[in-house]
Amino acid sequence: MSKSFEDLLSKVSECSTKTVAVAVAQDDAVLEAVHAAKERGIANAILVGDEEKIKKIAADMKIDISDFEIINITDDYEAALKAVSLVHEGKADMYMKGLIDTKSFLKSVLDKEVGLRTDKTLSHVCVFEIKGVDHLLFLSDVAFIPYPDLETKAQIINNTVEIAHACGIPNPKVAPLAAVEVVNPKMPVTVEAEALTKMNEEGKITGCIIDGPLSFDLAIDPEAARHKGATGRKIVGDADILLFPDIHAGNVTYKCLVHTADCKNGNILTGTKAPVILTSRSDEFEAKVNSIALAAVVAEAMKK
């Protein structure tokens, strides 16, 4: 079971070497991340974009990219289509966003001919290692789906459970979060959380344990659960997956953790044929490397 990103890196070492295809690779932060991933034995890379700019950025940063294949395409969207087609065709295992706007990047992911679309809902999963929490936390959705309905929340859970399984957590505990831990008909989020719990009990959502609604403190803090007399719940401060009611709650929590907590994180887009690494330019260098490592572990699980 992976309890830290070091554990994930150990799992990567057990996998066959993976390759990430980068769309519009003329980006200093991304080149630094894929170079570090190569140095750490996490993954190789195919760099698709403006070759002249890629080489200049690498030279300015004193990064050796001589071992990377470079495919010279100067048009950004054409570069994205080429990069995603490499994954579609099995020539690469993961797809990563470079210096291209998110809308165009996602358009390439969903391309009917060379993209990575499936019949699943796409959702975003953030994995956190937080000081004081003795296991990895999986947060979803904090960046992609604004207002998920009940069916979409069930699909987000399924996507996130697959990521947790790939990370070695066989039966993750899922906490559908709300402001309170009791069902209140005037608070629809709590009603949907109860419905998800029943769907799990009835075998409609499998591979996990769902207990909701839960407030954030009861989901991650055993002491809070004891203090509130909630020790009879299925989750007693030991949730693995935090399901957010909407993008506002998820995104605010994500940014609070990133900017105030002692933590490490990695992000991945799920519901696709292969892992998609969708990071922000504001994400720390280590977050990008961690995201590549997470994608490599997921790619290995999908291969099996």
Write a structural description:
With 304 residues, the chain is α/β, with parallel strands linked by helices. The protein has 2 domains: 5-117 and 272-303, Rossmann fold; 123-260, 3-Layer(aba) Sandwich (Isopropylmalate Dehydrogenase), CATH 3.40.718.10. 42% of the residues lie in helices and 17% in strands. It contains 11 helices and 11 strands. Strands 8-7-9-6-5-10 form a 6-stranded mixed beta sheet. Strand 2, helix 3 and strand 3 (69-72) form a beta-alpha-beta unit.
Could you give a short description of this structure?
With 304 residues, this protein is an alpha/beta fold. It has helices spanning 5-13, 28-39, 51-60, 76-88, 102-109, 150-166, 188-201, 216-220, 222-227, 247-260, 285-303; strands at 18-23, 43-49, 69-72, 94-97, 123-130, 137-140, 173-176, 209-210, 241-243, 263-270, 276-277.
Measured as a percent range, the helix fraction is 40-55%
CATH architecture annotation name of the largest domain = 3-Layer(aba) Sandwich
Task: Characterize the quaternary organization of these chains.
Answer: single chain
Outline, from the CA principal axes? elongated
What's the CATH topology name of the largest domain? Answer: Rossmann fold
CATH class of the largest domain: Alpha Beta
Query: Based on helices, strands and strand pairing, what is the structural class?
Result: alpha/beta
For the largest beta sheet, what order do the strands appear in spatially? Answer: 8-7-9-6-5-10
Mean of residue pLDDT?
A: 95
Strand content: 15-25%
Order of helices and strands: HEHEHEHEHEEHEHEHHEHEEH
